[in-house]
Structures are given as C-alpha cells and as structure tokens.
Design brief:
mainly alpha; 2 domains; globular; ABC transporter permease; ABC_transp_permease; transmembrane helix; transmembrane; membrane
C-alpha cells in the first residue's frame, strides 16, 4: 500500500491585462497637451508673445480717450465699452499688420487692376529693411551670450561699422565687384575692433564687459558727432550734420526695385541670412564654437580642460563686434547711402539685445525674432497717427520682460515645470 498522497493544483489565474504598456506609451494628444501646459522654452516664448499683445491691448484701451469714456457708464451700458474696446484693438492691430505684412486696401486695388503688384510688397519690404540690422546686432549679442558674455555694446559697434563702411564707400573709386565687398568688410572690421576692446579688458584685467562696452557706446556715439563735423566726413553740399554719400559702386543693390523703385530691401538681407547660417555652423560644427559653448557653460571646467579662457573672450567679442559692424555697413551702404546722420543708427544695437533674448541666442530664433521686431517697427510707423508709435517699443519691452522671467509666465498661466527646469540665458560674472 502506497504512503503517497495525491495533491491537487489550483487552476492558473488568467493573465492580467497589460495596462502598463498603454501608460508607458501615451497617445499624441496627451503628449501635445502636456507640452502646451509645460514651461519649456518654446511655449514660454509663445505665451510671452500672447501676454505682450494682451497687455498692449489693455494699454491701448486705457490710453484712448473715447474708449475710456465708455467705461464711465459701464454698468448702465456695458456693451458700449465692449464694442469700443473691441473695435479699437482690432483696428490698431489690423493697422500694424497692414503696415508690416499686407495692406488689404492695396490688395483690393490690385485685384481691381488699379495698383501694381510691387505696391503689395511695400509693407513686407519695410519689415525686411528694418529687420536686417536687427539680424546682425542680434547675432552680435547672441554669440557673446553663448560664451557667457553680455555684449551690451552692439550699438557702438554698429556705429563704428557704419563709419568704416562709409569711409571706404566714398574714398575709393573701384568697380562694384571690388568696391562693395571692401566696404562691407571694412564695416565688419571696424565693429570687430571696437568689440575686441571689452574682450581684451576682461581677459587682461577682469573688467566686466557690460561696464566697458556700455561706456564704448557713448564714446562711439560722441565720436560720430565729432566726425560728422569734420571736413573729411561732412557733406560738401549740405549744412546739416550729414556725411558725404558713398560712391554708386559701393551701394548695396536692392532686391525688388524692378517691381517698384520704392522697395528698399537690399542685398544686406541675404548677407544677414548667410551670417546666421555661418553662426549656426560656427557654434555647432567648429572647434572654436565648441570652445565658446564650453566656456559659456563652465569656464572653470573649460580652463581645467586646457582651453584658453582669455583668448576665447577676446575672439568671441571681436566676432560679435564684427557682426554688429556688418549691421552698420548695411545701414551706410543701403538705406542711408546718400549720407549718414547721428540718427541713422537709431536703437538697432540695443534692440539687438531683445532680439537675442527672444531668439534664445539661437541663430534661427534670432532671425525669426528680428523679423518680428522689424514688423512691429514697420507697422507702428505706417499706422501713425491712428496707432501710437510707442506701441512697438511697448510690445518689445513686454515680450523681453516675460522672456527674461520665465517663472513669471509659469506663475501667471500655472504651467508645469519641465524636467530640465526653467531655462534662462545667463551671462557670467555678475
């Protein structure tokens, strides 16, 4: 008789449904929703633009006397305040769009056969004309940012580049294929020389580039005033403080004058795009660009790796100044080829700081933000007197405020913190 006992095994339970795989692979809508509610660099930039235009709309309403008066009896007839505010904001922003991109009245005239095609391109031509120097000054500030430097001297570098291109432009008598490149190079070299000064001072003495470069802005502006009063630069035909015009062989060719002679956009725009592509290659593909990024990320680690910090500061600031100088050459040889004045440079150098911030010091972003700010400037000037000209400066300043403080955008819109944390541009040495 056997002592063994029979055992009965419990039936196997059916496998649980695999839900982890579904959770690990969220669908596109869920991923896109997360991205929209996250304070990443792209969404912070987009939300900064939206918030800036909303604040601009509020200030337009507050500053308009008629619209403001409708709020005095808001509780009696709220629709009056709503319609007045809506119409004012819509008309103002439409005027900005028409002055910068496409005028709908001109479009209707063209479709009716009463206007030429070239007239349709005037707003976009003005936008590109104003954006061109901003591309160069934005690259000048953005390149320095990548090395941990704050190049606040782009305005002075642009002025020096403007004078360098002007001097070569009216003193030499050469064929266009030689004269124009020499004048452009002279502008870049003049800006680069001034840009190198803060780099040398920082490398040799530790002087902060913000202090030295902002002082050089004043020196450059005052030097321009003095130089325009000398017999060498002053116009021989005008009594105002205007320079001599450049020779015809040094004038940048316009791109759309065959369609309409009033279209001012010129070859400098193509050079600006090429400069942005070159900057991308320099930062992404070259050894020098790797050194710039390494020093900007951690100068102490870069020094430990054997990189020469001082020479990197100097060459980066010189290259940044050269970009700003090219922007000055674009002004002297392009839109102001009949002679420069103390107002020719406007505030392109200082606006380059806002362009670089909005573009996150990325060449592609800098080009896009330069086009945006060029559109704001062209639209505001074209929309006068219906729209205050200061609305362009207001929008730019508000955009920069939000871009420079992503935590503010995150708090206002209750966005989630991205995995890598909030990304901000920083310059070392403060």
């Amino acid at each position: 008789m056997s002592d063994s006992t029979a055992t009965t095994e419990a039936p196997a339970e059916p496998p649980a449904p695999d839900t982890e795989g579904d959770e690990a692979k969220p669908n596109f809508i869920r991923l896109f929703g997360r991205y929209l509610t996250e304070a990443n660099s792209v969404m912070v930039t987009i939300y900064s633009l939206v918030l800036a235009f909303l604040i601009g709309a509020i200030l337009l309403i507050v500053s308009d006397e008629y619209t403001r008066s409708t709020f005095s009896y808001f509780f009696a007839r709220p629709q009056d305040a709503w319609y007045a505010s809506r119409d004012l904001v819509a008309e103002s922003y439409t005027a900005l769009f028409e002055g910068a991109i496409l005028n709908f009245n001109t479009l209707a005239s063209y479709q009716a056969g009463d206007a030429e095609f070239g007239n349709l391109l005037r707003p976009i031509s003005e936008t590109l004309t104003y954006a061109t120097p901003l591309i160069f000054t934005g690259l000048a500030v953005g390149l320095a940012f990548r090395a941990g430097l704050f190049n606040i001297g782009a305005q002075g570098q642009l002025i020096f580049g403007m004078m360098g291109a002007l001097i070569v432009g009216f003193t030499l008598d050469l064929p266009i294929w030689l004269h124009l490149p020499l004048a452009i190079i002279a502008g870049g070299l003049a800006g680069g020389l001034l840009g190198a000064v803060p780099g040398v001072l920082k490398a040799a003495t530790g002087a902060h580039e913000v202090i030295s470069s902002i002082m050089l802005n004043n020196i450059a502006a005052l030097f321009l005033v003095w130089a325009l009063g000398t017999a060498f630069l002053h116009s021989e035909t005008q009594s105002d403080l205007v320079s001599k015009p450049v020779e015809e062989s040094a004038v940048l060719p316009t791109l759309l004058s065959s369609l309409n002679p009033s279209l001012r956009v010129n070859l400098a725009l193509i050079i600006g795009f090429a400069a942005a592509v070159f900057t991308w290659w320099l930062l992404s593909k070259s050894t020098f660009g790797f050194r710039i990024r390494a020093v900007g990320f951690n100068e102490h680690a870069a020094a430990t790796a054997g990189m020469r910090i001082g020479s990197t500061y100097t060459t980066t600031m010189a290259a940044a100044g050269a970009f700003a100088g090219l922007g000055g050459a674009a002004l002297a040889l392009g839109v102001a080829n009949g002679g420069i004045t103390t107002n020719t440079a406007l505030d392109y150098g200082f606006s380059g700081i806002t362009v670089a911030l909005l573009g996150r010091a990325n060449p592609g972003g800098i080009v896009a933000s330069a086009l945006l700010f060029g559109a704001l400037k062209a639209g505001a000037l074209s929309a006068q007197p219906d729209v205050p000209v200061d609305i362009s400066t207001l929008l730019q300043a508000t955009i920069v405020l939000f871009i420079a403080a992503p935590a503010l955008v995150k708090a206002i819109l209750h966005l989630r913190t991205p995995r890598g944390g909030l990304v901000t541009l920083e310059a070392k040495g403060w």
